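Hi everyone, sorry if this is the wrong subforum. Our group has a chain we'd like a structural model of before ordering constructs, and none of us has done structure prediction before. Sequence below.
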Amino acid sequence: MIELDEKCIARLREVLRPVVSSMTIQRGCIISSEIIRDLSCVDRVFPTRGAVADKIEKYIGSEPSVKFFYSRVMEWLYDDVGYVESKPDFNLVESGIIGSEEEIVDRLIRDFQSLPYSYCFSLPLHDDLFHVFDKNVEFVPGVSVSRFDELYRQAFPDKVAGLGLMGIGSFVNDKWKENAKVLQFNFEGFVSGFLDTRPYEEAINELRSFFGICIGLGLVSVNASRSDVNPSFSFDVHVSSGEIWLPVRSHALDNEDLALIMRLTDDGDRWDQAVRDGMSGYYKDQIAYFYGASQSSEMYQRIKLSSIWLYNSYKSIDPMMSVVQATVAAEILLGDKGESDIIGINKLLSNRCAYLIGESESDRAKIIKDFKSAYDLRSKIVHSGKNFISSDETRVLYNLWGILVKVIQKEIRMLPQKEDS
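Answer:
Right subforum, don't worry. Here is the predicted structure as tokens:
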């Protein structure tokens, strides 16, 4: 619950009334964009620090009045009127469609204070990913892989007869294949059917972190060639109504995310059923070990953030940017500003890396050499404006990726588990 005090509620009601009364509705459910400026001013009513401010930031993010009040009114109108291209413009309050000015304002404030809502974000996975999971698997609460079968369709419908949608989401079902795997994350807060809010941003980062961890653990590999991107391949969002998950929106990932995910494979199609059965437990344990770690530990947070940068490094279509992002991933994992200021970031990271994963004197020497080459290349890009890389320099990037994978594996094995913290 967002527990606004009485003074804040009274002030919120005071500033919302004229905004609601001046809302012009277009095409049946779209609020005229001129109102956004007035709604932005409503944010001044909310506290800027303390528990309430923290909850608003966590559940909605920046510009909470626009993202919540603007979206909520359009969602109600979409439920009651729908999108009608030919419908003339009308004043919201004068129409009486969703109530009087006072009723709308009270409903908005009541819904705002009732946050957070519970959401499930679902992403279908293509045929080359997670062959090992023939059954539903939950790594930890809130992170799972499910099968798209009849039970899934009942639990997460694309449409709900007799129940209003909370957003614009009538989902495209042609992307699904019977018994395809679906990666799912759970978050709390507010997800708009029209505007991106903090939980959606967190879900995207969770997706990137998840696959970055899978790459780091060696559970999936990245094919060199790109597959064609299916334009209906998207994140579907459902909200819990208590008894059923209601569809909110279907949101396409950006093309670079899609292209990388389509390149990921676990090579499980080459395994017979007996091998798959054995690998299923291994995959589950590896992923669950990371997510089961003490999430308050600094190293857990470093690994998670670094895995996003590793993922982004593979995702980028610009090889120079890939080099920079990979070195950022290394700095997050191994960096220490105090020590780097004394001995230099290149030397610090290469030595730490060498002694963390090197298994012999010659192995450590090679790691130091490869790391130095990667950092020299980064410096040429960042400080000298280098705008292309040669085939030899591409191998420098591949070597750095290999080093990062080994570091992530080593660091994950040393993570304290929740019961140990």
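For your construct planning: The longest strand covers residues 181-189. Confidence is low (pLDDT under 50) at residues 160-172, 339-343.
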